[in-house]
Amino acid sequence: MEKQEAVAILNQIDIVDSECCDETLYYAYCEDIEGNREMLESLGFTSTEIEHTTEIYGEIKVIDLSQIAFRWVEWFEEGKWWLERPKKCGWCDSLTTEVSHPHMFDAALGEKMCKECWNHDREVYKGSYGEDIGEFVAIAEGESSE
Among the residues of 43-137, which ranges form H helices? Predict the structure, then answer.
C-alpha cells in the first residue's frame, strides 16, 4: 500500500489528524495519551503492538500510523469496517461499540450518543419533565453513523 493511500484512509476515517510529507510521515500528534491507548486497544492492538508503535516525546504522543493504516485496510478488504470501527460518543467522548442517533429532545445534529449517556438523559427527562425518550436503539450494522 502506498503511503498516500494509508494517510488518505486515516484522514477519511478521522481517527487522528495526519500529514503526509515526502518519505517520512505516518505520524499523528495526539494530546490524549490514555485515550489513544484505549482507542488502539479497542481496535484489537495488543499491549506489545501499542508499545512498539508508540513513543512519548514530552507531552506529545507520536503514533506510527502505518501500523494502524494497514490494520484498517485489512478490515476494509474483509468487510469488517462497520463491525470493527470504534464509535465515539458526542456527549462523553468515550469510545464504544454501539451508538444511537440523538433522542427527540436533543438537537445535536450529526452527533451520536452511547448507551450510558442515553440512559442518563432518559432518567433526567423522566424526572424533570415526565417524558420518556424510550429505550436505547443502536445504529444497525451497515447503517451510516455519520
Answer: 47-53, 65-78, 81-84, 115-129
CA distance 39 to 88: 10
Long-range contacts of 83-89 (CB under 8 A, 24+ apart): 83/141, 84/43, 84/44, 85/13, 86/39, 86/42, 86/43, 87/112, 87/114, 87/145, 88/112, 89/113, 89/114, 89/116, 89/117
Q: What is the tens place of the pLDDT at every residue in 70-114? A: 555 555 556 554 444 567 788 887 777 788 888 878 877 778 888
Polymer length in residues for the chain: 146
Unique residue bearing C-alpha cell 484505549: 38
Q: Are 28 and 18 in contact (CB under 8 A)?
A: yes
- Record the pTM: 0.43
Asked whether 115 and 98 are in contact (CB, 8 A), the reply is yes
Q: Where are the domains of the chain?
A: 3-79, 86-146
Residue found under cell 444511537: 100
